[in-house]
Amino acid sequence: MKKLDKLLLKSFIGPFVITFLVAVFILLLVYMMKYFDDFIGKNLGFMVLGELMGYFSINQMPMALPLAVLISSLMTYGKLGEHFELTAIKGSGISLLRIILPTFVFCVLLAIGAFLLNNYIVPKANLRAFSLLYDIKQTKPSMDLREGQFYNGIPKYSIKIEKKYPDGISIKNIVIYDHTEGDGNKRVIIADSCRMYSFMGDRYLKMDLYNGNHYIEEEEKSGRKNKDEVAQFVRTKFANMDLVFSLASFDLNDTDESLFADNRYMKGIKELNSSIDSMSHSMMDSKYKVYGSVAGAYRLHMAGYLEPPMGLVEKKHEVDSIREAKKVLQDSLKRMEELALVADSLEQLGEAKIDSSAKKKAKRKTYQKPGLVTSKGVVKSKSNPLAVKKKKKVKFDSLYISSDSLIAVVKLKMDSVYQEQGVRDQVLSRAVGNARNIKSTLNSTVLRMKSLKTSLDSHVVEKYKKYAQAFSCIVMFLIGAPLGAIIKRGGLGFPVIISIFFFIIFYVLTSVGDKWAKSGVVDGFYAAWMANFVLFPVGVFFLKQARKDAKIFDADFYSVWIDKIKNWWVARVNKKQ
Prior knowledge:
By secondary structure, this protein is an alpha+beta fold. It has 14 helices and eight strands. It folds into three domains: about 1-140 and about 455-540, no CATH class; about 150-250, no CATH class; about 265-420, no CATH class. The longest helix has about 70 residues, at about 420-485. It is found in: Cell membrane.
């Protein structure tokens, strides 16, 4: 069996390596085509492009591995079936499951390696690749002076030429606008010929100008502007003038990679979990704070407090009990202050009786004469405490305000509506302003919540994709190995066509799941595993058919089923007649 296992592994690893390299190359070309316009005319050099392609090759490896496994398994077992080697092995008493066991173990180890690659190496490669790509996009194209067009590639200069000779050095009729002073086109150089070349390793550009004029328009040194004054115009004629320009702006600059580290593609599972937890906290805080931000509009009938939805406070406790306790304390203090202000206003009007003072009077058993009317117009009850009629109290936290006091507050607020026109307009204007502020607050909160939700879903699906892409190597093997044993064809013909078909299904499902997760249609876990959930039963079906030596790709197999259906239909029709 050891020799057989070595034979199978040797037959599998060779096609796997070749197809893996080919798959990476094809996927890399497709991916780099998106940024092809950013590379044109910038003279990046082979080292920069090679570095970028190397990083993006690592980026494409997790997607290329399942395709390579599928093609190589189809080729290996299809070739064994085509040369009747698979039939001979089965004839010796070895089952199909035992035949595919060594390559299956190899694929399991490959899946573990794919997960480690996707979790530790790919994020770092993405960080370096996208930071380098950003630098390339910011790099200016190489200097390209075109006849009859202004060139603004050199900072603070505009250059126009009439004709450029084939040697790439000689130029006829050149116009240079100098904007270094930032005062418009007040400095112009015109020459009938020029020689242009770079030196010091293309760090500087030198222009030797011949037979021209240098025009400068100068203002008065005093800086005073007078309508009668005329600006000084200076013209300097020259036979030869040398201009030197720095080409530092054309260099490729290294941007700090930490600026890109917050992207989900640059994170491993540990960093993704931390980001998901942080965004969950932010979403919880946003949901909780929105109730406090609009509570001021409900002072009359909710005492300036809005109760959060059921389960939000408990869920916030689960997310961060310390932050929740601090928030509850702050809200309680805020409510206490607002209720204290209400109590002070009622006390000034003489319409409120705080329950705490009433309890103190009841303890001291102080009695007042019946029928006594106070200066504030409140009729006090009979001194006998047993004869005092208890008033209904409305509870707000630790303070107790009588129902009469609450009615007085409402009446005070309602009376402002029936006052004179000027006061009523002010009240209505203030109410409209408050409504608009609440609407603006709610709209901004909704937009922020949508942004956080999209970012959270993107991080969740990226986290589970690291597991799903690794497991897809096993799924593709379960499809490829039994299918190769069924079709019994090796080489790069029919197996490659079938592999491309299943890989397209895998790629489309992965892309659709990613988009659905970002839009909130499905959970990130199901979006990441969608392709595996669909293709794994297909692999199990092919494995079951391969064990029975089913001829599902032979025309005779379907002819038998068609004949059975025809016979059943004919028998049914004859029975009815």
